[in-house]
Design goal:
This protein is an alpha/beta fold and 367 residues long. Helices cover 33% and strands 15% of the residues. The longest helix is centred in the C-terminal third of the chain and has 21 residues. Bound molecules: 4'-deoxy-4'-aminopyridoxal-5'-phosphate. The site of 4'-deoxy-4'-aminopyridoxal-5'-phosphate (PMP) has 11 residues, from helix 3. This is Phosphoserine aminotransferase.
C-alpha cells in the first residue's frame, strides 16, 4: 500500500503510535473490562486518565501554578463568545476589546465579539503580523485578542518572547487572549505572558471536540450573568472540568498525545522539528518559480503553508497527481483557493520530503 501523508488542516494527522495504542486499549482499558468511552467520568479510572493528561500538558507547556487548565467542549469558535462572556463581568458599563486582525480566524473572533462589546481593531494585515509599533491600542481595554497562528492564511506570530511580539511588557495590565488552536505545542511559549490561551484539539492535540483553555487565576470569576453555567470558566475550573460531563474519550486521546510528545523530547524538540520541516518546504517553494507564497517571510507559519501554482489551471492536475502519490488533503481553504500543506507535530519530515519531491517533479513535467 502507498505510504499516505495527510496534510489536512484539521482534524489532522495524529501520531501512529497513539492510534495503535488507542486501538489496543479500545475494548479493555488496563484490565478494567471497559472501553474508556464507557467509563464514568467520576470513576477512579477516568479520573486517573484526566489527571495524567492535565499534569502532562502542564509540564509540556510549563504552565505556571497560578493558571488553570480547562478541558472544555465546543471547539475554537465557541471560545470567541465564551471569552467575552467570561471576562467582561467586571466591565458592565461597556467594555472595549482590542483585536489584532491577521486573517480569517481573528476576523471570526472580531465579528463574534461585537455581540458583546465595543471592538477596536488595533491593527490589521493578512500577509504579516503588523509591527507592534503600529498597534493602536485602547487605554483600559478589557483585553487584547489575537490569533497567533492563522490556519487558513498562514500568518504566525513569534510568541517566543525573543522579538517584539505579543509578550511585550508595554502591554502589562491588559490581559492577552490568544487563539493558539493551530500551533499549540509546536513551539516553546511563555504562558505567563498571556491571560488566556485557547485551542481546539483537532490539530496538535487530539480529536475534535476537546477544547483547551489555559487561564490565569485572577481572570476567573468575571463572567457576565448571562454566561451559560456549563461554560463559566470559574465553575469549570472549580470542578476540575467536570461541572458537566467532559469529552472523555477525546481527553483520553489527548493524554496519549501528551505522553507521545514527552517521549519525543517535548515541545522544544517539536519546535526544532517544525523549524526543519518548514524550512524544507518553504525552500522548495521559494526556489521554484512554478509556485508562489504570499505571506511575508518573517510571519510565515511553520504549521500551515499556503501556496499557489502560478498557473492555476494546473490545480486539479496537481491535486490528482498528489493523491496518486498518497499526498492527501492539499487543497487550500475555499475562501483563499490554491494549496495548503499543514505540517503539524505528527507529520514526519519524510512526509514533507515526499511533498517537496512531488513539487519539484510536477513543476518539471509542466515545462
Ligand atoms: N481558530 C483557529 C486558529 C482555527 O484554525 C480553527 C479551526 N480550524 C478555529 C479557531 C475553529 O475551531 P472549531 O472548528 O473547533 O470551532
Amino acid at each position: 500500500m502507498t505510504q499516505i501523508y495527510n496534510f489536512s488542516a484539521g482534524p489532522a494527522v495524529l501520531p501512529k503510535e497513539v492510534l495503535a495504542q488507542a486501538a489496543a486499549e479500545m475494548l479493555d482499558w488496563h484490565g478494567s473490562g471497559m472501553s474508556v468511552m464507557e467509563m464514568s467520568h467520576r470513576g477512579p479510572e477516568f479520573i486517573s486518565i484526566y489527571k495524567a493528561a492535565e499534569r502532562d500538558l502542564r509540564e509540556l507547556l510549563a504552565v505556571p501554578d497560578n493558571y488553570k487548565i480547562l478541558f472544555m467542549q465546543g471547539g475554537g469558535l465557541s471560545q470567541n463568545a465564551l471569552i467575552p462572556l467570561n471576562l467582561l463581568g467586571h466591565k458592565p458599563d461597556g467594555a472595549t476589546i482590542d483585536f489584532i486582525h491577521t486573517g480569517s480566524w481573528s476576523d471570526k473572533s472580531i465579528k463574534e465579539a461585537r455581540k458583546y462589546a465595543h471592538v477596536n481593531v488595533a491593527a490589521s494585515s493578512t500577509t504579516a503580523v503588523p509591527p507592534q509599533a503600529e498597534w493602536r491600542l485602547t487605554p483600559g481595554a478589557a483585553y487584547l485578542h489575537m490569533c497567533t497562528n492563522e490556519t487558513i492564511g498562514g500568518v504566525e506570530y513569534d510568541v517566543s518572547g525573543n522579538q517584539p511580539d505579543a509578550g511585550d511588557p508595554r502591554l502589562a495590565g491588559v490581559p492577552l487572549v490568544a487563539d493558539m488552536s493551530s500551533h499549540i505545542l509546536s513551539r516553546v511559549i511563555d504562558v505567563s505572558k498571556f491571560g488566556v490561551i485557547f485551542a481546539g484539539a483537532q490539530k496538535n492535540i487530539g480529536p475534535a471536540g476537546v477544547t483547551i483553555v489555559i487561564i490565569r487565576d485572577d481572570l476567573l470569576g468575571k463572567a457576565l450573568p448571562v454566561c451559560p453555567s456549563a461554560f463559566d470558566f470559574k465553575l469549570v475550573a472549580d470542578n476540575e472540568s467536570m461541572y458537566n460531563t467532559p469529552p472523555t474519550y477525546g481527553i483520553y486521546i489527548a493524554g496519549l498525545v501528551f505522553q507521545w510528545l514527552k517521549r519525543q523530547g517535548g515541545v522544544a524538540e517539536m519546535e526544532r522539528r517544525a523549524i526543519a520541516k518548514a524550512a524544507l518546504l518553504y525552500h522548495a517553494l521559494d526556489h521554484n518559480d512554478f509556485y508562489e507564497t504570499r505571506v511575508a517571510k518573517s510571519s510565515r507559519s511553520r504549521m500551515n503553508v499556503p501556496f499557489y501554482l502560478k498557473d492555476e489551471s494546473r490545480n486539479e492536475a496537481f491535486l490528482a497527481g498528489a493523491k496518486a502519490r498518497g499526498l492527501l488533503q492539499l487543497k487550500g481553504h475555499k475562501s483563499v483557493g490554491g494549496m495548503r500543506a499543514s505540517i503539524y507535530n505528527a507529520m514526519p519530515i519524510e512526509g514533507v520530503q515526499a511533498l517537496v519531491d512531488y513539487l519539484n517533479e510536477f513543476a518539471a513535467q509542466q515545462r
